[in-house]
Write a structure and sequence with these properties.
By secondary structure, the chain is an alpha+beta fold. Helices cover 36% and strands 20% of the residues. It is built from 5 helices and 4 strands; from the N terminus they run αααβαββαβ. It has helices at residues 4-15, 21-28, 32-44, 79-88, 114-125; strands at residues 64-72, 93-98, 105-111, 131-138. A 4-stranded antiparallel beta sheet has the order 2-3-1-4. Strand 2 (93-98) and strand 3 form a beta hairpin. The longest helix is centred in the first third of the chain and has 13 residues, at 32-44.
Amino acid sequence: MLDDIDRQILRHFQADPTLSTSELAERSRISASVCWRRIEKMQEAGVIQGQEAVIDWTALGYAVEVSLRVTLDKTQPRAFDEFTAAARQVAEVIELQTFLGRVDVRLSVLARDMKHYQQLYRDRILTLPHIADIEALMHIARVKSDEVLPV
């Protein structure tokens, strides 16, 4: 279980993941060694799973983002496993989620432009195994992108 000090460390860490351990300790009003041990403990427990770079894909020339909602042919016993394994091999698929319900899988796909997307869709997406239905949702704007939760 997390205590108030752990929550305080997490609040500061979420607000600015670039803070050093000593800066986190100072903001949390604890010693650097205590802060380091608590961070290690939360990493071992899986509370903190890592840090990642946030990349502005448009700055790298990727102007098109599409969310594909896929329904799989569930008469095939390994449809989910085979589909997700193949979808992972498509470099432009940056996110893959599975669901219970009418839609089985959602893919987030990046492309440089519409011509590139059309090529990806025809050559790489439609050739993925076990697709029964697919719906494309064109990304217009990111209104909120935040994984910070109150702790």
